[in-house]
Amino acid sequence: MKKRLLLLLGLFVCPFLFSQILTINSSASVSIASGSSISLGGLEIAPSDTYVISGVNNVSRSSAAVTSGGNSSVSRVFSSSALLSGFAGALVFHYIDGELNGISESELVFELQADDGSWTSYEGSVDAGENTISYTFNEAVAFKAVTASASEARLTVEVISSAGIGILVYPNPTADRIYIQADNITRAELFDLMGRKVRSTNQDQIDLSDMQKGSFVLQITTENNKTQSFKIIKQ
Q: What does the pLDDT look like over 133-152, one tens digit per residue?
């Protein structure tokens, strides 16, 4: 069984579902040692190095799904009142079948919300038997909320429209893939900011998981020779 360590200094853990589950006062902190983990009402945090949550913060769990661009998350969302920054390690998101909102477990992806309200998706490991989705962050991330959604209906959707032609590209920013929804795509090309082509496809998705973080330009051409270009951020 995984070792779990929780050092509580002047904090309160609430047992009620879909409510506040952790309160940290201004002079208090929670320290989670490397190799240990803490579970906050179904969100398990296992840092790769000692991780400290300090200062005034409240962590809560809600049964209200997040909606964005017509897409919806599962009906379980963890939120913190202050940004959790500099985290590297594993997050394990527990759910129950009744919270899936019709989403197939095989399609679940992690969703992390940044301080500016934007969401970034991560293709985690789903264990349908244990009702969990997990992801290991090898590089530090910062987030204020955690949930899960469907890989084909993620929470960050950018809608591009030109001359009556609509193209949906999501998620943006992304940590791994971008998906393209448009009629009659003939070519999608990704360029770095030096103008060098780094990806090209006629499919409806592009895998960026092996690319470095940064900004890119995606150019999409349809059968009527209409071309649209816009910025993609790889996180």
A: 999 999 899 999 999 999 88
